[in-house]
């Protein structure tokens, strides 16, 4: 457990076990499936026991952290009469600690009454009855040396056999009518022979391996498991479970879970107490307060105690809540007992200081000529050592007033600088988005950095008058920086909601005005196609700028993707033929997190479609405006065209007559044909 740092996993880990007949290839399967190194049988030396007892390994490359247990094979001859006892013990242990149990079985055993796996299944079901509150375990039946019979034909027969065995197993009254599905999730897979079809076997195992990734997530192989022991307590839990099993006692898992929590939480509490005793800051505080008062003693001591208790909370967080809280309270009491003497020293220093002031006032009264008794009585009455409740109330009132005024002033100061940032950022950011170009986001980042630095510098200077500790001050400065960034992001989201309107405005401006910003007059000489393409490209630039928040130095390919897909769809289809027919058929951009996405690819595609529809009328109107000019050009050149056409026809007629006259003289038949 230490080797794989399991304790750091919390509840994010899984345990897999395998059981089945001896020499059925269990270790071989695990080694190929999980990259482990369990000892395998040498087939050339005959069939004999290879795995003795229970062996454990860490699965290589599987997330979350997954442990696998290789159990000794059943029905072996080596153990003799002790075989059945150990078989039941190991089966119960596997069911008590595992999330997934692989049942290795031969394909030819399916449907046979005397199959090798039936005693094993009976054992599994019988020992499950010994768990007071069973885990929801996934049973994965791995059919080995699969024949040509399809899995869909084998699986119903196997499930029927499993159900019959479940029905035949004696059950306690509480579970007499409980269905198999309440205790187990049953899965069935089939693998080819490793010896005869090794390549096919390896491919099938590689496919099966993928199912063990994220096995404890909802929908995973063990997604609905119950009663998980936190990783830091797994080693102790397994040890205690095996101890109970060896003593042949029924295993009460809920009670066991509380016992594990009790032991582990106590261990954690003791570790934190020892750590507190050795804490250099505490030891220095304790040593100093013995000789003189320490400014901010309570605050410093509270901080050290809070760190210790927070560390306990972090390590004990996954254990039983009742046990965890009880042990935390005990730890807190032990810590307070430890620091009580130092606290008393501090109170003594405070009392001494007050007493010194009393002595000074008393001496002064005496020097003024008052009688000793009168002076003493007045000062003692004034000190009034018994009026501790009144003094405490006064102190609380003063503290509360100071705290309220302090909070009010800080709130006013914060609001003032937030307002300054709003005024400094909102208008300029909106203007930059209006003229969206390649320089828009760099300009916004520069503006944000300048205004934030200016505000933070002023705010920091103002906070120095409050004598705040550095952590609190840095937190307030950090929140102001976050506010500035939030202004830009909020404005970006607002502008993204108006992007269609801005695209249409930009298109209309560029389409209807020439390079000198003069309104276009459609004479018929203008290239409307080129003008339309230019205006659309500029509108697409605006869309690409508004598609994502780019306040961090991360490049993206949004503009190129949009250009390729919307301005040149044929090139996009050719480029993406091997990946996707449509690069915009997605709800996210590559390398852009969802939190920074303003417009998804699908939304951009929809907006572009709407944009083209709504700007089509403008293009059509321009084409209509060009028609009179085109007609006037045609009318002007019509006489010339007609004259050229007549000359051409006259020449063609002359040539035809010449050819026909020659033909008539040379052939009478042709003459007849001609007539």
From TrEMBL:
One Gene Ontology term, aspect cellular component: endoplasmic reticulum
**Pfam families given for it?**
RHD3_GTPase, Sey1_3HB
| Plastid keyword on record | no
Q: Which residue range or ranges hold the GB1/RHD3-type G domain?
A: 10-225
Which molecular function terms from Gene Ontology are attached?
GTP binding; GTPase activity
Concerning CDD domains, the annotation shows:
GBP
Give the family per the record.
Belongs to the TRAFAC class dynamin-like GTPase superfamily. GB1/RHD3 GTPase family.
* Identification of the protein by name: Protein ROOT HAIR defective
What lineage is this protein's organism placed in? Eukaryota, Viridiplantae, Streptophyta, Embryophyta, Tracheophyta
